[in-house]
Every structure is written in C-alpha cells, then in structure tokens.
Write a structure and sequence with these properties.
59% of the residues lie in helices and 12% in strands. It is α/β, with parallel strands linked by helices and 270 residues long. The protein has two domains: 128 residues, Rossmann fold, CATH 3.40.50; 108 residues, no CATH class. Strands 3-2-6-1-7 form a five-stranded parallel sheet, sandwiched between helices. It is globular.
Length: 270
Amino acid sequence: MTMKHLFTILFLSLFSVCFSQQKTEIYIIGNIHDSVPNYHPQILFEILDKVKPDLLLHEVDSEAMKDYVGQKNIKGNENLASKLYIKKYPNTLRFPFDFEGRNQYRKDKGMVPTDNLTVQLIDSLYKAKQLKPSEIKIYEEFDGLTKQLMKLAEMSPENFNNFKTDKICEKRQNCQYHELLKIVEKRPEFSNRFVTKPNGEKISYKDGYKLMSDFWDLRNHTMAINIYKIAEKSPGKKIVVLTGFLHRYYLIQQLNKLNKGNYEIKEFYE
C-alpha cells in the first residue's frame, strides 16, 4: 500500500467519524406517567443519566411547559426525573412537543368526556350480552390487548420500550380508535346519548368519539412534526423524547418517514 493510498484511507475514515458525530440521536422513551414500584422517577433519571441527552422533550404544550420550568405542580415520572437531571446537568434544554392547547381543545370539541363514556357504554353492553358476535370479537380483542399491555407495564422499562411491544400498542390503539368506532357508528345507543360542551351545545357519544378517533392521528402527526423541527435545529445533539409508551410506535413511524438521514433513532438500552 502506497503512502498516498494510506493517506486517502485515513482521511476517509476521519471524515466518516466526523460525519457520524454530527448526526443527531433521538431516543424515544415510552413512559408510565405515574410512579409505580417498577417505574418511578429515580429509574427514569438513571436512564437519562446513562444517555446524557442535550435536550429533553416533554409530552406537554407550551403552557404546561411553563409549569415544568417554573417548578409548579411537580408530579409525574417525566417531570420529576427531568428535574433531577437538570439539577445535575443545568445546561440541558427542555422543550414541549405536544399538540398546542391539547386538553382544552378536546373539551371544547366534545371529545372529552365522550371518549371514556363511550368505552364504558360498550363495556356495559358487552357485560349485558347485548353486543352482536362481530362486536363482541372487536371488544374482546381490544380488552385482551389492553390487559396484555398492562402486564408489560408491570415489568422493567425495556419491556415496554421495544419493537414487539410497539406492535401490540399499535394494534391496541387501532382497536380503540378505529375498530370500536365501527360499533359506535352502527348502534343507536351512541347516537341517543349526549354530553354538553363548554359552549352549551350538545354532542352525541357517537360524534364525540369520532372526533377523538380522528384526533389520535392528528395529535401524533403533530407531535412527530414538532420533534422533527427541533431535531433539525439541533444537529449533532442527543435528544430524549419523553412520551407515554402508547404513543411510541406512532412517533417512531412518523419520524422514520420524515427522516432525511440527519438523525438516528436509538434505544436507551443499546
């Protein structure tokens, strides 16, 4: 090998290393929001301390982020763990990435509380044996997937942060927001029950649940775009996205679609 060839190889190797160092790393950590024995703020803090992110992204909007930064109403695994991390690494940046005005938007549109009331009514009809065979099949699949995820959520965080669990989450959320909707749209019970929106207008369970079903997709698309925009402005940084683990599959899918090769999605345990 000539010196010229050796120099070329060394140069290309150095260039490759420099380029890889510039690529942004995104870690999407699916969380259980409330502290439980197998998952609490100290466990999440230790994960963060291992990854050592430059940016922490929270599943809140800009208004709720003010409370996070202002140290008001400190609760929840993500908030408490990030507080510990910021204390140790004060130069870490924190940003919101959720759909702006999420909670009030859902109330104003009538999605809340029709979403929970609708699922409760389906459950009541199931227990009263009033569902049709096709509807029973849908609801039992939804219930089975929910119980499966509840068991996984009792284990260590690696168990609800992996591809296999992501696929179960995807099936469960598709059941909730698309398959259960088939029951809602066909049965009169959901068209004949109403809640009152903040503006005084009434909305049926059926219409409210349909809005919530659509909002699941809109919200996740919006969150992924918000994460993408932050990543674009943060070349070469480590970014940790703190989200509920039911959202993880959707965010990963959308970020993979948006990716132009300028970031890499990684697992915290790799």
